[in-house]
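re: ur msg from earlier - yeah i can do the 6-O-phosphono-beta-D-fructofuranose complex, just paste it... oh wait u already did. ok heres what im feeding in:
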Amino acid sequence: MIIGVLNSGGDCPGLNAVIEGVVGAATRRGWKVIGFYDGFEGLLSEEGNDKFEYLTPAKCRGLRAKGGTILGTVNKGNFAIKVGVGQKGEIEPAVLEKTKQTVKRLGLDALIVVGGDGSQSTALLLSEIGLPVVGVPKTIDNDLGATDVTFGFNSAVEVVSESLDRLETTANAHQRMMVVEVMGRHAGWIALQGGIAGSADVILLPEIPFTLENVVKSIEERKAAGQREILVVVSEGARLADELILLDEKTQGEVRLGGIGKVIAKKLEDATGIETRACVLGHTQRGGSPCSYDRILGVRFGSYAVQLVAEEKFSYMVALRGGEMVPVSIEEAVETLKLVDPDCQLVQTARDLGVCFGD
Ligand code: F6P
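and the outut:
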């Protein structure tokens, strides 16, 4: 057997761990693994201009600890068919034809696609033209409904909580307010969990509409009680008065978010009179080594994806449910985003700790 593996979309700590898991499990079965470069683009290889390499356990030894991805990735290009929630594009017939030729030329028996909902939508389309695919869910945002958790998420939460610990000491020294913008396009999981771990006073999420008045009131109560520093965490996808703040429009792919932290910081400083600084954690949340949880989840996902190939369970994606690896159909997996339920236990716990959600 010869199987391919590629990762597509934004990178995420743990991608290399998945690759190591795939290579280990496939080699143990006597199979060969081809790793395609730069997402699906690697499938457009031509003889003499190959965009892939054969992966061996020796090449992948210890990869689970490394951030980024040895294969490279793209979140645009010839295969980017999902351009926003509910929106789908198409792949050019010539691109599909070239993909089929590559699959035939290399004798690929299956392809493992590591990616978020956009990449899994592409994987589904490739399965419709007869390519046997198995998916592995990836996103630091943790917003894929089919799995309890995606790798990369816990590493991002670590970055947020450590950053809040650091920001707290300088904010306390200067009696300042820090507004920390974190990733989370549609879902506020990173803000919620990172905010709780890092003792945020205010957490603003895309799922919980907030007003500045409510936020200001809670900050003033804390100041009146003698608190020196104020920590506010805001998801990049949170909306102020229904305004989604965009950094710019992309010609391809999803619009780029960013800037809400600065806007909120200015408004809160004006309203409270507290000296305020904004801090955008941005891609620090996606960079660096994966935490232990994500290393283990990554190798588990990779190894189980190979198991699904062995069972010929194609057009399925691996998922973690209740601590166990299970297959879910890719079609079902890309249907629902997992958003924070404003009434969930975690939000209740945060409220018990005095967190203001601005509602
Ligand atoms: O989807 C994951 C994510 O990290 C989002 O939270 C963020 O909006 C986006 O990727 C950023 O992507 P890019 O790398 O294109 O700036």
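cool cool. The mean pLDDT is 94. ping me if u need the other ligands too
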